[in-house]
Amino acid sequence: MKIAIDGRFYGLEHAGLGRYTMNLIDQLQKLDNKNLYFILLRKKYFNTLNFQKKWRKVLCDTTHYSFAEQFKLPRLIRKINPDIYHALSINYPVLYKGKTVVTLHDLTQLSYTIKATTLPEPLYLIKHFGLKYVVKKATKNANSVLVPSKAVGRDLIDIHNVKKEKLKVIYEGVSISANNNSALNIPDKYSFHNKYFLYIGNAYPHKNLDRLIEAMKLINQKRKKNVLLIIGGSRDIFKKQLDKKIKQSLMDKYIKTVGYIPDEYMKYVYENSIGFVYPSLAEGFGLQGIEAMKAGTLLLASNIPVFKEIYKENALYFNPYDFSEIANTLELAITMSEIERKKAIEKARKFSERYSWKKMAEKTLEVYRSSVK
Fold first, then answer.
1. Domain of 336?
2. Half-sphere exposure of 8 (CA within 13 A, CB side)
3. Is residue 167 a part of any domain in this protein?
4. How many CB atoms lie within 10 A of CB 130?
5. I need a surface site. Which of 57, 101, 165, 313 has the fewest CB within 10 A?
6. Total structural domains in the chain?
7. Are residues 83 and 36 in the same domain?
8. What is the pLDDT along the chain (373 residues), one digit of tens a residue?
9. Does residue 192 share a domain with residue 339?
10. Which CATH number covers residue 361?
11. Can you count the helices (H) and strands (E) in the chain?
12. Residue 169's beta-bridge partner residues?
């Protein structure tokens, strides 16, 4: 079987999509030494990555979600002539007529409007229409549609009328190391001396950080000792907007944005926090919550369906639309007894082991095989 995969999101600079792409490619190389793979890559990784014998690199230095890719990708894929082509995100090549698999991680790009873009409104509306058209074509034409949760699958059925039999729920894995950090020389930038909560991720509107800021303001008004919120990971225009909001709220004393945190320090930052706070209004899977569990800290999360599905009873849940309830949940985590805390963390750590990139790749390979029959 000849398999082509769009690997252009390879690299941690692409956040969750990058991590998914990297782990899928890495695990498939370990699992499959029979099939022939063609991996489409941007120039940076085309020049630096080395694959095993039956894997080929294909240069495809085309911008994601662009009109150009909708014309260049089909030509390139037809030249490869694979038995199956896997689009790893919403940028499905609508003009390609061969057998395909598409992964739809979430629907936030379709659900959140002008506030979630840096484009001028006319350009945004054109792009938004284009994305809706691509999703419609992808879900209609693809042999299989992979989703990271039942919640995303339900949305595709209810909102986009996708046929249930096309959907394959394949949970993602967790990358954070469970190793002890005692041998690491932790930079001062990531060694926080006050008690702190943690948020890792982007600052898009659906991440709901405005209400988390209000919640932090509320608990610090009530407490004698300061409690910090450390925000890591956001590196774009939305981070600048977030920094401005924090300053305007007079919360820069309590909320620190530290940018990207390298993987080798992530376990330390997680496990030394009071808890990881995930106030999102919508997600496709919620990888950081699983990371928090595995690293050894409490998880505080929105009571949205996808989090209830993925985390089960291993989180302290709150209504994400009520900042006072978020504050109450933060206070609950602060005042929890050490015995209760350790018990909750250990239970969640064991639970996190069910999520594995290896399992994800195995099930994806099964989909490839079934799709070409």
1. 188-352
2. 21
3. yes
4. 15
5. 165
6. 2
7. yes
8. 999 999 999 998 888 899 999 999 999 999 998 999 999 999 999 999 999 889 999 999 988 878 888 899 999 999 999 999 999 998 899 999 999 999 999 887 666 544 555 555 565 556 667 678 888 888 889 999 999 999 999 999 998 888 899 999 999 999 876 555 555 678 888 888 789 999 999 888 899 999 999 999 999 988 777 899 999 986 667 778 888 888 888 888 899 998 888 888 899 999 999 999 999 999 999 999 999 999 999 999 999 999 999 999 999 999 999 999 999 999 999 999 999 999 999 999 999 999 999 999 999 999 999 988 7
9. yes
10. 3.40.50.2000
11. 14, 13
12. 147
Written in H, E and C, the secondary structure of 234-274 is: CCCHHHHHHHHHHHHCCCCCCEEEEECCCHHHHHHHHHCCC
Estimate to the nearest angstrom the gap between the alpha carbon of 92 and the chain centroid: 19
Does residue 177 form part of some domain?
A: no
- Residue 276 belongs to what H/E stretch? strand 275-278
Residue 329 burial (10 A CB sphere; 0-12, 13-18, 19+): buried
Is residue 164 located within the same domain as residue 257? no
Residue in 56, 60, 99, 55 with CA at minimum distance from that of residue 81: 99
Distance CA 16, CA 95 (A): 27
Q: Do residue 155 and residue 206 come from a single domain?
A: no
Q: Collapse the DSSP code of 76 into the 3-class scheme (helix H, G, I; strand E, B; otherwise coil) and give the result.
A: helix
Residue 179 lies in a domain: no
Contacts of residue 363, defined as CB under 8 A and 6 or more positions apart, other chains included, come to 168, 170
CA angle 319, 321, 327 (to 5 degrees): 65
Claim to verify: residue 133 and residue 253 sit in the same structural domain? no
Packing angle of the helix pair 209-222, 237-248 (nearest 10 deg): 30
Residue 15 backbone class (left: φ over 0; alpha: ψ -120 to 50; beta: rest):
left
178 lies in some domain: no
**164 and 311 in one domain?**
no
Proportion of the chain in helix, strand, coil states, percent, rounded to 5:
50, 15, 35
